[in-house]
TrEMBL record:
It comes from Caenibius tardaugens NBRC 16725. InterPro entries: Puta_zinc/iron-chelating_dom (IPR005358), UCP006173 (IPR008228). This is UPF0260 protein NT2_04_04750. Pfam families: CxxCxxCC. Belongs to the UPF0260 family. It comes from the Bacteria.
């Protein structure tokens, strides 16, 4: 089994081992939600509508290994393509590190607990609806907290 180096999350993405890359994910599930794009501004507008393969109770993909058979456009994030994925939530650990920002205090690698991702309001667990039940995406626009939004995390950090 691969060993994770101490503080590996402070290293450049290109220096990470495969195991460290995988461990960087906070498990929030936000990348598995549908987004809309504003035609005029190009702004990415998040929704609370989940991919049909997302387990909305755990924020995990129900069949990650075979997901392409069901969701052909599901993207596998890699060191090569991560910098181009501007639709990723601003809280995404890969996006933060690709932009040279540190992981936030609620990230499980910093806090030592996966529960803090949920307590900080970042996890989609229990807050999303499956695409098979949702209806028009326009009816499901939501605001997810920003990585640096201290007010949103106030309850958890108090
Ligand atoms: S197929 Fe799985 S990993 Fe891909 S978007 Fe859907 S739930 Fe997420
Ligand atoms: S948004 Fe980023 S950190 Fe959250 S589950 Fe997706 S890849 Fe992992």
């Amino acid at each position: 089994m691969d060993t994770l180096r101490p503080q590996f999350w402070t290293l450049p993405l290109t220096a990470l081992t495969r195991a460290e890359w995988e461990a960087l994910c906070d498990g929030c599930g936000q990348c598995c939600l549908h987004k809309l794009e504003d035609d005029d501004t190009g702004e990415i507008l998040p929704t609370n509508v989940a991919c049909k393969l997302l387990d909305t109770g755990t924020a995990q993909c129900k069949d990650y290994r075979n997901r392409k058979a069901y969701v052909p456009d599901c993207l596998r994030l890699t060191m090569r393509n991560v910098a181009d994925q501007h639709w990723l939530p601003r809280t995404c650990a890969y996006r933060l590190r690709a932009e040279g920002d540190p992981l936030p205090s609620w990230h499980y690698l910093i806090s030592g607990s996966r529960e803090t991702v949920r307590e900080a309001g970042i996890s989609v667990i229990g807050r999303v609806i499956c695409e098979t039940e949702a209806g028009p995406l326009e009816h499901h626009l939501v605001d997810w907290p920003d990585a640096g939004d201290q007010q949103a995390f106030g309850d958890w950090e108090a």
